[in-house]
Amino acid sequence: MDTLALPELQQHLLSALASPPNEVRRLFHGRGRCWLGLEQITVDWLQGQVLVSLFKEPSEDFHAALQALLMDLVGSEAWKESGATALLLQHRDHEGSPMDIIWGESGDYQDVIENGLTFKLDLGRKQNNGLFLDMRYGRAWVKEHAQGKRVLNLFAYTCGFSVAAIAGGAEHVVNLDMAKAALSRGRDNHHLNQHDLKKVSFLGHELFKSWGKVRKYGPYDLIIIDPPSFQKGSFALTKDYQKILRRLPELLTEEGQVLACVNDPTISSEFLIEGMKAEAPEMMFEQRLENPPEFPDHNIEGGLKALIFSRNSRV
Fold first, then answer.
1. Number of Cβ atoms within 10 Å of the Cβ of 98
2. pLDDT tens, position by position, 19-47
3. In what order do the strands lie in the sheet with 252-262?
4. SS3 call for 153
5. Span 227-274, pLDDT tens digits
6. What sign does the CA torsion over 71, 40, 57, 84 have?
């Protein structure tokens, strides 16, 4: 991280706050490596709370200069007129990802709105707050294509895709994730949107030990696969993704679709395309969803890859 690059961050934030978003959004995405010297910083707008995240321990000089920048920011007219209520600094490289309140007041939770839907975020408690903002277009796609469908949401986390699917008229959604606390937050998210939970199932199991339970609720019209790159003791992306792909034919309807995702900068979309050809050749690649414009990346394959496949191609 380069102290000399901080004025560029300051100008970017002043410009963004001059016209603050109506919904939750990323304001600055250094992780896309489009701004030299700022690659380890992101800034998010959380319905008034501004979250600055550091992904690497900075030098003392950089940390001092960043603190000074943030204090200048809260004194600016753009900040005062933005309606911002708090400024938070999260140290994601530290154990527990501790969060400092730089300005204002912040609670443990924050409700945010995306695509008209409400989600509850954890602040200062975990490394990830409960909603991956780069998947905004993916959730919008699911909402648009869920009408009347049975949906399987693998690695469901806090059930963002499930909320989008039910909002889009899905007949039923099955959420599977081994983290039961995340699924509990998923229930909260459905409650926040006044959804009928009779249409939603939550399976707190490890996927590769639960194929029988997954099949019981099928077949599915839409399957969403959005795994972590690595989950200790249960999932390694390059080794285990193929095990999921080869199961798709027995889980899908004849017209079924798959939204397959990977968010590892070292793995390209070809990993999914070639993997599908090898393990489920009847699944045809249709399209790759664009990433939101607030997530620029110097390499198109460096960011999120969200690909649509269909058993009987619609292209």
1. 12
2. 999 999 999 999 999 999 999 999 999 99
3. 200-203, 172-176, 150-154, 220-225, 252-262, 305-310, 284-288
4. strand
5. 987 555 557 788 889 999 999 999 999 999 999 999 999 999 999 999
6. positive
